[in-house]
Amino acid sequence: MSGSELRMEPYAHQHPRALRGSALVQAAGAEGFSWPEHINLNGCGLTGWPESLRQARGVQALSVYDNRLADLPEWLWTFGDLHTLNLSGNGFTQVSPELGRLGRLQMLDLGHNSLAALPDMFAGLPELRFLYVSNNKLTALPDSLRSLARLTYLNVTDNTLSELPGWLGELGHLTEFRAYNNALEYLPESMGHLSELRELHVMHNALTTLPQSLGGCGSLREIDAQSNKLRALPDTLGSLSRLTSLNLRFNDLSALPDTMRHLAELRFLDLRANRLTEVPEWLAQLPRLEKLDLRWNQLGRLPQSFGAFRERGGQVYV
Question: Which residues pair with 275 in a beta bridge?
Fold first, then answer.
């Protein structure tokens, strides 16, 4: 028995579905082996694709996270049943537009690579619901992204985006949008059309204000806009009747719009490290508010209503 056969022996009687990573790569050389429908090759140190993988049939999910792959094989486009593809954490500097031939994809992860641009391929991916392109070197998003009518989650964090396209509001089923750690100076007014958006994460950018249209995002539960340059908030913020968490710490706010008194579901409000010198009486009267952080401002004495806020169990930090 050869040395290679000895190394494969522990996996010879295991079903491929029970194997992942390096164990799956080793088992792939065994006689009679067939690749499973869900393939996990994460963290194997791969610099090239396993040759036998081209023979796989009926593959539905393929993950090669945390390897050293630099290109995509042409046979990948034959995996017509693929609905999940994780290519994150490799060395990709570009990806082929042929990726758009995988028309059944529902989840695509291209994060943690070195992509300077994305191919204009997304019109071929009508089923896509989750798209991760975080931690790359992107300066723009391709226009074909606007065709992703079923997209619910979009993550473009940790790139070098200075603006977002006006068509962003066309992604009508988007429920979570993450764009933090970029260089954004404003958000497009079209965002007000995102009526199903529940979470907006835009911290660590260069925003000076939020769009007036934000009030149209009636499903919003959470906004995190900390560590920007916000000097004012739109009056329409008070229209977000389902908002429960609002993080505005480390900005340049000197006042709050009076319409915020209508945020009846707000539970957590972080206003640390702004330029507030006073806060309105109604702030402590928000019916669901549980925690209010006002530290590192220039506040004098708090309004009398804050005594009642503490008595009902509310936490305020000053």
Answer: none
Q: Comparing C-alpha atoms, which of 262, 272, 258, 268 is closest to residue 240?
A: 262
Q: Which two tokens stand for residue 59?
A: 């593959």
Question: Tokens 């539905």 label which residue?
Answer: 60
pTM of the model: 0.93
Reported as a pLDDT band with limits 50, 70 and 90, residue 18 is low
Nearest to 109 by CA among 62, 149, 53, 72: 62
In this predicted model, what pLDDT tens digit does every residue of 225-242 receive, in sequence order? 999 999 999 999 999 999
Residue 174 CA to residue 232 CA, distance in Å, equals: 26
- The DSSP bridge partners found for residue 109 are 86, 132
Q: Give CA–CA dist 18/12, Å, rounded.
A: 12
Backbone angles phi, psi at 74, to 5 degrees: -65, -25
Distance CA 281, CA 69 (A): 58
Residue corresponding to tokens 């082929």: 96
DSSP string, 202-266: --SS--S---GGGGG-TT--EEE--SS------GGGGG-TT--EEE--SS------GGGGG-TT-
- SS3 of residue 38 by DSSP: strand
- Provide the pairing of β-strand 61-63 with 84-86: parallel
